[in-house]
Amino acid sequence: MPVTRLADLTDPAQCPCLVVKVGSSLLVGKQGLRREWIAGLVDELAQCRARGQNVIIVSSGAIALGAARLGLEKGGRGSLADAQAAASVGQIALSGLWAELLELHGLPAAQLLLTLDDLEDRRRYLNATATLGRLLDAGAVPVINENDSVATHEIRFGDNDRLAARVAQAVQASAVLLLSDVDGLYDRDPADPAATLVREVRGVTGEIKAMASGASGSGLGSGGMTSKLQAAEIADMVGIALAIVNGTHDRPIARAIGNDIGTLFLPPVGKRRRDAARKAWLGGRMKLKGELVIDAGAAKALQGGSSLLAAGISGVAGAFKRGDPVGIFDQAGTVLAHGLSEYDAEECARLMGRHSREHEALLGYAPRSAVVHRNQLVLK
Ligand code: GLU
Question: Cβ of 240: how many Cβ atoms within 10 Å?
């Protein structure tokens, strides 16, 4: 079942995997990291985990924190060099605190610093996605930020709202929760007394965009409502729900859900529509570079939602590389699915028809879990 209400965000049945993005102004105050508030949030996230939800944290705050430590003006955003230096000083303390607080609940923290390219370049996208999947399976809580210290303008997300949406897409999370310094999206400038909170949005239309003003309220992060709407558009495109709620309270998740205060962006209705949205997104990256022919057993497994394993492959065509899109066909030549191949064509040919336990010897390195992972595959 998909997410349809704010309350579903903490329900493991509706939302098995939640990405929570925390903005700079919530994490960093005048005295540095807001330890008590963060500890309260970590309590809430540990409860999500105890209920059986997977949780991924996207944490801002590195630049703001590092700038304070280094005494840099404009919150470290005066120049790119300042931001990059600030980020590397801030990041080390930031991840240290997340790790310490998560550990109090017995949860291992896992740091990932990503650049735009890590999610756009297909090979790197597969690597990042596989690592995240493995971390979640192993019981860790990934704490993600942009790799600000090395990412330059051309390869930057620039804001963690969109990074959170792209991470959610990569791991096929059920929803993204953006903790902000306002209650959600207002129909006009929230300073206007007539402004009312928009509770539910279906589709980020021009009218919705017109409601957002560009600047970040706090001046600490690079977010603001515009980047949140861009994140909502990404989530929409891949069929994932996204919520904006106010993080300025203690235990912000309980407060937002208990009182039903926030804005929920819902993707197209119905499973077929959501699949279509996902297909369209993957489809956008898909100019097929090769073909895999599979046997009837593998075809059945695929229809049942499994990954494609080498044992079920009987033919390989094309000169594709790891990360390239391939068509998956049955013996009669009917297309069954499109997906991103975990291996080069030549490696696929070596592995085809062979059981996973033989793969390491055939490849000469530790094999991947599938030839096309189910997360990287759309059925036709
Ligand atoms: N990556 C930035 C940081 O850690 C924050 C980006 C944002 O404000 O969204 O400071």
Answer: 27
C-beta separation of 227 from 187 below 8 A: no
Alpha carbon of 92 to ligand 1 centroid (Å): 14
Tell how strand 54-59 and strand 17-22 pair up: parallel
Residue in 84, 156, 74, 78 with CA at minimum distance from that of residue 115 = 156
Q: Which of 10, 6, 21 is nearest to 200 (CA)?
A: 6
- Tokens for 209? 């965009």
Pocket test residue of 80, 118, 145 for ligand 1, highest count of atoms within 8 A of CB? 145
Place of tokens 């079920």: 312
Report the nearest atom of ligand 1 relative to the CA of 24: 8
> 34: which 2 tokens?
């807001």
Domain with CATH 3.40.1160.10 in the chain: 6-277
Contacts of 357 by beta carbon, 8 Å cutoff, 6+ apart: none
The response to whether residue 220 sits with its C-beta less than 6 Å from ligand 1 reads no
- Distance from Cα 275 to the centre of ligand 1, integer Å: 31
Give the tens place of pLDDT for each residue, 101-136: 999 999 999 999 998 878 877 788 888 999 999 999
Compute the mean pLDDT over every residue in the chain, rounded to the nearest whole number. 90
Pairing of strands 325-329, 335-340: antiparallel
Is 148's C-beta closer than 6 angstroms to any atom of ligand 1? yes
Indicate if ligand 1 lies below 6 Å from the C-beta of 294: no
Per-residue pLDDT reduced to its tens digit, 363-372 = 999 999 899 9
Q: What is the CATH number of domain 288-379?
A: 2.30.130.10
**How far does residue 91's CA lie from ligand 1's centre (Å)?**
10
For the stretch 39-49, pLDDT in tens is 999 999 999 99
Tell me: pLDDT of 78 over 60. Answer: yes
**Percent above pLDDT 70 for the chain:** 91
Closest ligand 1 atom number to CA of residue 163: 9
CATH no. of 6-277: 3.40.1160.10
pLDDT digits (tens, 9 = 90+) for 150-166: 877 666 777 899 999 99
- Range(s) for CATH 2.30.130.10 in the chain? 288-379
The finding on whether 24 has its CB within 6 A of some atom of ligand 1 is: yes
Q: Which residue has the higher pLDDT, 322 or 281?
A: 322
